[in-house]
Amino acid sequence: MESTSRFIGTLVRPELNADLTSIHRQLRSELNLKRKDMEVGIDPYGCGVLTTTEFRYQHSFEMSENHCDQLTQLRQVDDISDLNLLVTPEFESVFGNRFHGIEIDFGIEIEVEELIDAIEEMDDSDLNLDYNLEATQCNVELNGIPEVLSFEKHGIRLHNHRNVSSSQLIWNLKEFQTRLVSAFESAGIL
């Protein structure tokens, strides 16, 4: 498997290099970051990382789980020092519509069963709830919002099947929060 990952890394290295170079240049221009504020690296396995004082940007490729002749591409921003940065015009200018989702680790264990029960008690026809038999993971859909909100023991993930802007993800996460505030309180998330 390591040799396959190294082969993928060799194939995608030019694309990773071009993407990281472009992001690096734009971060210097739009967010006024300096060389000493950023660190860039590409590993031999198809993953490029640009770490700043504000966040970490990661762009990676791996073999698709379902189709060995296809690669899956993932771009993510994590280790964010201030979530407000994600909705600034400068951040949007750099990253545009490159994201599929947001993940938040609460640092506490979420009682997913309690959350499911609380959402079901809301009896809201605009909400669609789906969960596994063990009630350890659940997905919530809200009419009018293209993203799905997933809950697991340690955090949440808002995800979309197409690329969207960070501000759209934040806005829609707030919509879910507004609609689910009573369920969040019942489950000890807020």
Tally of helical segments = 4
Mean pLDDT across the residues is: 90
The share of residues in helices is: 25-40%
| Secondary-structure element order, N to C | HEEEEHEHEEEEH
Our Rg estimate from Cα atoms comes to 19 Å
- Give the helix/strand class: alpha+beta
Query: Low-confidence parts, pLDDT < 50 over ≥5 residues?
Result: none
- Proportion of strand residues: 25-35%
Number of strands: 9
N-to-C span? 42 Å
Strand order of the largest sheet: 5-9-8-7-6
| Basic shape | globular
- Number of domains in the coordinates? 2
Largest sheet: 5 strands, antiparallel
Explain this structure.
This protein is of the alpha+beta class. The chain has 2 domains: 2-81, no CATH class; 104-186. The protein is built from 4 helices and 9 strands; from the N terminus they run H-E-E-E-E-H-E-H-E-E-E-E-H. It has helices at residues 2-30, 89-95, 112-122, 166-186, and strands at 38-42, 47-52, 56-63, 71-78, 99-105, 127-131, 138-142, 148-152, 155-164. The strands form 2 sheets. A 5-stranded antiparallel beta sheet has the order 5-9-8-7-6, with helices on one face. It has a 4-stranded antiparallel beta sheet with strand order 1-2-3-4. Strand 6 and strand 7 (138-142) form a beta hairpin. Helix 1 (2-30) crosses helix 2 (89-95) and helix 3 crosses helix 4. It is globular, with a radius of gyration of 19 Å. The termini are far apart.
Question: Helices and strands in order, then pairings?
Answer:
Blueprint: H1 2-30, E1 38-42, E2 47-52, E3 56-63, E4 71-78, H2 89-95, E5 99-105, H3 112-122, E6 127-131, E7 138-142, E8 148-152, E9 155-164, H4 166-186
Helix pairs in contact: 1-2, 3-4
